[in-house]
Amino acid sequence: MRLAVIGGGINGLAAAWQLALAGHQVELFERDALMQATSAASSKLLHGGLRYLEQAEFRLVHEALQERRWWLKKAPQLTRRLPILYPMYQAGRRPRWQLKIGLWLYDLLSGRQGIGRHRWLTAAQALRCSPDLQPAGLLGAYLFFDGQMDDQQLGLWVATQAEKQGVHIHQHSPVTAVRPDGALLLLDEAQWRPFDRVINIAGPWSNQLLQQSGLPVQQGLDLVRGSHLLLPPLCRYGHMLEVPGEQRIVFVLPYQGQTLLGTTEVRQSIEQPVQCSAAERQYLLDVYNHYFVSPRSSTDIRREFAGVRPLLAGSADASSASREYAMHWQQQLLTVSGGKWTTARALAKQVVQQVQQSAN
């Protein structure tokens, strides 16, 4: 079949690649350059999502852990295994037994695709790993492992694999409208381009495309901004930290010789600029300074970036919103909603399945 994929983020690129592998003739349309928006503004983690176990998202975590291993194995030049500390303090919101169960499940769901078992460190051991951690009230830390990546370069690697399979990629080619019969209209073109199927996988902009095409939106999205700061280097271990007074967690990670601090979760509209606000900046610095002896201020920020995640609607709290994905057909038009970076290839395989079933 002749297929059009709309969206040059990681989910669109992975879908185009997998559809081409399945024998389809694929063209991909991206309104800007590839991997420029949300997919390049992640926390740079290839992970199962330890915190999603609190929402009982076992299927998603299991799938993501299998995919984590695949990325690490297939693109070692752009990925690595990262040791992460979860320090536990007397004033923490989660008891040690709860973290123990969560990490045991995390290891169990990894199965034979695991990259290292968790273990408990005493306070003295934790401070040897991360000397700048606040020692007052420190009970110890759990050490576990996840994957880290260069998200933009890894996405471009996927684009290269897609092109090797014959995918024709059109950058700077905004699609302004789609039709249920499988046609799409490009900006500055008067004629509709016909395809056997159109896959709308434009991330935060997928519903906007439906609306401007006069088509119903079948899956609501919560658009949630996540902001990050890059600070001077701290140590070689990552940190998963509870936000004081909240259920949320924030990551402090070594990344390309610097420290990556993030993320926030702020709802926004598609029209709002995607940038770190002053309030988010202070929020992140406050969390950092709560946990580390040497404080950081806005003058220490080397760079900041933000992205908008298209989460499936329905949760009052953005931090507990599902990272699952959903797919809806309107005749020959398939719209893909949600998803997370690590599971892009698994999502793409579901797209292939949907397209093949639609032909039967």
From the structure above, extract its key features.
single chain, 360 residues, alpha+beta, FAD/NAD(P)-binding domain, D-Amino Acid Oxidase, Chain A, domain 2, 3 domains, ten-stranded mixed sheet, six-stranded mixed sheet, 28% helix, 30% strand
Characterization of the model:
By secondary structure, the chain is an alpha+beta fold. It has three domains: 2-39 and 152-220 and 322-358, FAD/NAD(P)-binding domain; 56-148, no CATH class; 222-312, D-Amino Acid Oxidase, Chain A, domain 2 (2-Layer Sandwich). It is 28% helix and 30% strand. It contains eight helices and 19 strands. It has helices spanning 10-21, 58-74, 96-110, 123-129, 151-164, 206-212, 278-291, 344-358, and strands at residues 2-6, 25-29, 45-46, 79-89, 119-122, 138-149, 168-170, 175-178, 183-186, 193-194, 197-200, 221-231, 238-242, 249-255, 258-262, 266-267, 303-312, 325-330, 333-338. Strands 3, 4, 5, 6, 12, 13, 14, 15, 16 and 17 form a ten-stranded mixed β-sheet that branches. A hairpin with a 4-residue loop joins strand 8 (175-178) and strand 9. Helix 1 (10-21) runs parallel beside helix 5 and helix 1 (10-21) crosses helix 8 (344-358). The longest helix has 17 residues, at 58-74. The radius of gyration is 21 Å and the shape is elongated.
